[in-house]
Amino acid sequence: MIADVKKNAEQKMVKSLESLKTDLGKVRTGRAHTGILDHVMVDYYGNPTAINQVSNITLMDARTIAVQPWEGKMVGAVEKAIRDADLGLNPSSQGNLIRVPMPALTEERRRDLIKLVKTEGENAKVAMRNVRRDANAQLKDLLKDKAISEDDERRAQEDIQKLTDKYIAEIDKALVAKEADLMAV
């Protein structure tokens, strides 16, 4: 039973770490990347819809993303959604094609991206702590049901704390690497 609780907690921590790494991969350093627009939602006839479900997204060159809505009348809505997504992007439409130039990273923009990265890291740490809290609650329930002894519960809580510390250190490593990547000119 204790092994199940530990295994479950570790699986959740691994998923949280992978999610953080995926999110950090979307924070780009001045190069165009179609993944930047993944979270942009377009008002598609009253329903919020992912941008990649209403348009074709490609790279025009290293610094420009091309977005081509499948319906001509969606150009304005897609352009507005990109502008309102708080990504610091300023799209411009030419007929049915929307060009999204990636701004060169200024020192201020780099600082903003680092703040964003730190926020993502803090959210991942909170997720780790929530997993730890849930695992400890499960252990307390096992103790209350007299399925395990107090010593077993205490040892298991220490093991879960070690797991938490290990994954929080992994988060810190990923954040330091991403900050160094962002500050490299």
TrEMBL record:
One of the GO BP terms on file: cytoplasmic translational termination
Compartment list: Cytoplasm
Recorded coiled-coil stretches: 132-166
Limits of the Ribosome recycling factor domain: 20-183
Keywords: Coiled coil, Cytoplasm, Protein biosynthesis
GO molecular function, one term: ribosomal large subunit binding
Matches recorded under CDD domains: RRF
UniProt xrefs under InterPro entries: Ribosome_recyc_fac (IPR002661), Ribosome_recyc_fac_dom (IPR023584), RRF_sf (IPR036191)
Pfam families linked: RRF
Gene Ontology CC annotations of this record: cytosol
Domain of life, per lineage: Bacteria
Function: Responsible for the release of ribosomes from messenger RNA at the termination of protein biosynthesis. May increase the efficiency of translation by recycling ribosomes from one round of translation to another.
Family named by the database record: Belongs to the RRF family.
Database matches in NCBIfam families: frr
Record protein name field: Ribosome-recycling factor
Species in which this protein is naturally found: Sulfuriferula multivorans
Gene: frr
